[in-house]
């Protein structure tokens, strides 16, 4: 059996006495697209924050490629092969798209500040390698023509794709995507769906996708995990989850009730 790229074991989190996650387990295989869905406040973002080291769980642990990462700093976890995008755009103002990507990789490069200051050859070579990796990542996501535009001048949907490209240049094993389809028009969704599949198939990266666009989740995910009130209530291939009574009640039921009220 393939070892999981990411394993979450019995993770519990409370904020001020309120339990937000309760004994959550999750195993994601290398090169799998996993959907993480559930009603508002179910604990999805909190779980991503535990995985990437922003929150420390009260109980449980997380392993990346078999290595325990709980308690490590987010930057160390990123270096071990975890990428992440957020619900809101995290592009730097005043930088072009290409510079934004290069900034993502500079954090991982090896030449020191002194070498940079003296403009040594090693630093220049590294800068060239970084630029090449950034251009390749932009090409991979189909946005090479935007390289020299200011990042924040792009549409919100395009900014999300640039952020995904930025995670890819560090060659992660697992990437967490928090509502990446927000701001994408319906006809862009099919392209986005194809991009996620290419990341899985060509790069072997495991993706964990929090998404309220259920159509995207059901189309693109290999498996789907459902959280409700901090607990995992269902897991399976999209069809199993779609037809699960508990899911219909806890997730779709709540949505429908909200819509009708
Ligand atoms: N830092 C925090 N301090 C206190 N409570 C928090 C904190 N972060 C999240 N919560 C609470 O934890 C619960 C779960 O929030 P979380 O954002 O993880 O849910 P979610 O499933 O991602 O929801 P949504 O789909 O609305 O983004 C919510 O009740 C939220 O108010």
From TrEMBL:
Keywords per UniProt: ATP-binding, Nucleotide-binding, Transport
Keyword rRNA processing: no
Domain of life: Bacteria
A GO CC term assigned to this protein in UniProt: plasma membrane
Domain ABC transporter intervals: 6-254
Any one GO molecular function term: ATP hydrolysis activity
Family to which this protein belongs: Belongs to the ABC transporter superfamily.
Protein's name in the database: Amino acid/amide ABC transporter ATP-binding protein 1 (HAAT family)
């Amino acid at each position: 059996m393939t070892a999981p790229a990411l394993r979450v074991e019995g993770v519990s989190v409370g904020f001020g006495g309120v339990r937000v996650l309760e004994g959550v387990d999750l195993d994601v295989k290398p090169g799998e697209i996993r959907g993480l869905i559930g009603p508002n406040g179910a604990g999805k973002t909190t779980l991503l924050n535990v995985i990437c080291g922003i929150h420390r769980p009260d109980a449980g642990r997380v392993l990346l490629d078999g290595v325990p990462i709980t308690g490590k700093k987010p930057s160390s976890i990123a270096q071990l092969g975890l990428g992440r995008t957020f619900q809101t755009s995290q592009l730097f103002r005043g930088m072009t798209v290409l510079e934004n990507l290069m900034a993502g990789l500079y954090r991982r490069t090896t030449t020191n500040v002194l070498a940079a200051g003296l403009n040594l050859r090693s630093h220049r070579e590294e800068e060239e390698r970084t630029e090449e990796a950034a251009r390749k990542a932009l090409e991979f996501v189909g946005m090479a023509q935007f390289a020299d535009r200011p990042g924040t001048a792009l549409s919100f949907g395009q900014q999300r794709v640039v952020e995904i490209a930025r995670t890819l240049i560090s060659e992660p094993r697992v990437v967490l995507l928090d509502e990446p389809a927000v701001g994408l028009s319906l006809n862009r969704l099919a392209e986005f769906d194809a991009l996620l599949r290419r990341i899985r198939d060509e790069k072997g990266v495991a993706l964990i996708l929090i998404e309220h666009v259920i159509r995207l989740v059901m189309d693109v995910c290999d498996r789907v995990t459902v959280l409700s009130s901090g607990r995992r209530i269902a897991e399976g291939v999209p069809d199993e989850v779609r037809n699960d009574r508990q899911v219909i009640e806890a997730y779709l039921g709540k949505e429908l009730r909200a819509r009708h009220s």
